[in-house]
Amino acid sequence: LAIMSRLSIHALPLLNDAGQIRGLVFDADRAEATPRETAVVLMAGGRGQRLRPLTDSLPKPLVRVGGVPLAEATIRRLQAQGFRNIWLAVHYRAEDVEEHFGDGSLFGVTLSYLREESPMGTVGAVGLLPGEAREPVLVVNGDLISAIDFGALVDAHAARGTAATIGA
């Protein structure tokens, strides 16, 4: 983290003795963030067809990059930035995702599940959120590899007072 700060690097791979990537460290991991009330929906229900045959037996959010499942890296990043209330939208191989993440306590968050009985299309599962989910809602793809500051995105959205903000 000190190297990252000195060189203004936002993400750094962790290597094992053989030089293989075994994890990632993000600049958001430096300090415990102030908890945020913003609900997060992590889209984790797609079939991952472009990654076949890898996703024939594994849902895309559990595909490992650098030894860490894609969705887990995002959950850890969200947690490091203060987000604690995360909803996982699941469909394809939902049981595998639920078994891996459980209630989220191992990751320092509260995880709940939005289970699509049949595919609802891109972000369709957001409509399954219960009424107590507070606005704004941050919707994040479950296969995201990014060093984005989600908190800054939510803060910019709130400051602008817009109906929606999309990061690309």
Describe the structure using short key phrases.
168 residues; alpha/beta; single chain; four-stranded parallel β-sheet; two-stranded antiparallel ribbon
Write up what this structure looks like.
- This protein is 21% helix and 22% strand.
- It has 4 helices and 8 strands; from the N terminus they run αβββββαβαββα.
- It has helices spanning 2-7, 70-80, 94-101, 150-160; strands spanning 11-15, 21-26, 39-43, 64-65, 68-69, 85-90, 110-115, 137-141.
- It starts with a helix and ends in an 8-residue tail after the last helix.
C-alpha geometry: globular
Listing every helix as H and every strand as E from the N terminus to the C terminus, the arrangement reads: HEEEEEHEHEEH
What's the main sheet like?
4 strands, parallel
Low-confidence stretches: none
Strand content: 15-25%
Determine the N-to-C terminus distance: 26 Å
Give the total of beta strands: 8
Total number of helices? 4
- Average pLDDT works out at 80
How much helical structure, as a percent, in the residues?
10-25%
What order do the strands of the largest sheet run in, or round the barrel if closed? 7-6-3-8
What would you report as the Rg, rounded to the nearest angstrom? 16 Å
Going by helix content, strand content and strand pairing, the class is: alpha/beta
